[in-house]
Predict the structure.
Amino acid sequence: MPVGELHARPMRINFGPSHPATHGTVRIVLDLDGEKILNADVQVGYLHRGFEKECESGHYYQNIPYTDRLNYSSAMLNNVGYCLAVEKLFGIKTPPRCEFIRVIAGEIARITDHMLCVGAMGLELAAMTPFLYLLEGRELALDLLDALCGARITTNYIRVGGVWADLPEGFAPFCRERLDRIAGLVDDAHRMLTDNPIFRQRLEGTGYLPAEELIAYGVTGPLLRAGGVALDLRRVQPYLVYGELDFDVPVGEHSDNYDRYLVRLEEIRQSRRMVLQCLERIPDGPVNADDPRIRWPRKGKVFNRMEELIDQFKLVTEGDLAPAGEVYAAVEGANGEVGFYIVSDGSGRPYKCRCRAPSFSNMQPLARMITGRMLADIVPTFDLINMIGGECDR
Amino acid sequence: MHDDENQATPGEPSPLLRKVLARLGQQVLEHRAWRGDDRIHVDRRQIVEVCLALRDDPELCFDLLVDVTAVDYMGQPDGFRRPVEIWDRNRAMVRRGPLSRHQVAMPERGPLPRFAVVYHLLSTRFFHRLRLKCRVPEDDPTLPTVTTVWPGANWLERETYDLYGIRFQGHPDLRRIYLDESFVGHPLRKDYGKRDEQPVQPLHGPAANEPRRPH
Amino acid sequence: MPVGVIKVARPAPTLAQRRPWLALLVGLWVATRHFFQSAFLFARGRQNFTVHFPEQRFLQPPAMRGMPVLVRMSNGKERCVACGLCEWACPTSCITIFPAETADGVERYPEVFDIDMSRCMFCGLCEEACPEEAIVMSRQVEIACYSRRGSLWHKEDLLVPRDQLQTRLDYLHRHYDA
């Protein structure tokens, strides 16, 4: 019914900032005609903490814990991205064992992120049970990260030129057992959701945006792959050891929410494949690059020898003195390309440390996706964008 | 430091840079390939033409704008050839560079323009990357917008405006994106102290409508 | 190894699309199976997942990073020599140290060693920077308090005898002496 016939005016409502269905703090100002969205203004920034300003006053190693807080549902991938950027700045090559460990840790983090995204979306579409299964699976994956680095969410595990510690004893069988249980739980969620008529009706065709427009908006990650563009940095610009692994990049073709859901579910399975292959092939050897500019000396030597003690003091207080210059390095995060652009002036602190956050770019076309659609379509669209407040607002 | 970017000789341009130079010609003021990253400098008045050329050229096809940001080179007159100090009025001194330790000095104004706006481009067909930089002076921090080339530049330019105060001419909706509209100043500029605070604006009473000022 | 690109298969509308009660049956079947699995594990004395927290504790891995504490040696003194490296390495500057000298004028010790637990983010960089193995991450995470003042931990609160930290120290020795 057109506006005006019943003397109706468009109604302006607030969706957020604290709405049960916006699990990132975001505010969408909507102009509604009945249930139809006439106009949407997406406002972000409620979680802005000044990540970049903070990084400018911290040494390179001190900023690693801050990167945990960007995308806090897959913190490990941010650690990897930041450390790869700093290593690129220094021109360091990391040993192979370290790269395998990074892939294992990063893929487990990706599993947790996708499970949280799909589970929370189910929950907000009133599918409570798969949420419980997926969160249980996520806990199992977080136990793996816990065994690896001692913390579930804020990992702070990857170091410049290496990782903090080697894999713990008995990690491979533990990991295989956990991944099998996770696969079972994902299959259960898949059984309950994928074929469910109500679920399909709410996802099929909603949030549609053609791939060309997604590219123009700078969208990356599962959102773009659901539109049929196989842009996965692990495939097109293999970093770490992704070039040696055997995996598939899932793409959709309809570019709607249902394909995004299917792509995420398939990526969980592909990540599991990658972790299993890495556990098979992981070589022995050191886990840290032997570069005196960045490598903190071994503790056993710090306690007993003068030179290493002096090194320790120099590295902690002055930081790792980087060559002046600027680099950009990107990894495939759970939501898209996580890039770090670091400008160095030759001191131990970055002159500028910019995080290219996928959530920020992915949130931009949200207004386009929901304008002209129904109010209830916002929730699945927003959830499958998987906007993480910490990453979007930094 | 023998391998830093200023001391490395420009050398042969990479294959991608050669294509870019062939396409853009005189519009490229400077180019450099370092650590596998290709970077070109262009004039800020020509940014839209350059971006259109880079996007539409069939051999380059930079159709995905990855990132827009800015760098504040305050008091870095010649790049980073010598250690410099950054003035921070809260902490008196942020030590920069390995040589100096305790001197306190306001940075001098360099001969080069203060800001640089940085665009990162990616091609979804050839998967190559390019970094595009253009210098923006302090007294006239304006730049034509590239939202006409990539609509995704909208929020990224708003963010750059919010945090650096660089105005993008022709931008459809140049508002602050992270900070409140009543925020004074641009926090990622180097002369904005890390611990500067702004008073919370009272919601009621006579002072409610007065603009906030940093103390 | 070439990386393949697969198209996610959108399942053709099955019978369940036309008969929604079939989807209900599928869901009920999955949920019932989970119920009996959990009940079976519960009967065997092994909870599937839930931990009844204050009575039961979850199993902490050796790598567990809890709150940072100071090591107390067998003579009752702290091991810390107040060199200030942890203070320097801490990203959030939550550590405050005032050093002092012992009576014989040779050794240093921290007269004040405060950690502001409301700012600490348990990142473990202090432990990594410490050249004396004097500050380590314990397994203690229950540090809730009723006031902000209570989240400021002083040296006396932070000192923990060395033998209580043996798990963590063993873990560190395995990795640090490589």
Remarks:
- The mean pLDDT of chain A is 86.
- DSSP finds 17 helices and nine strands in chain A.
- Chain A has one domain: 51-289+317-393.
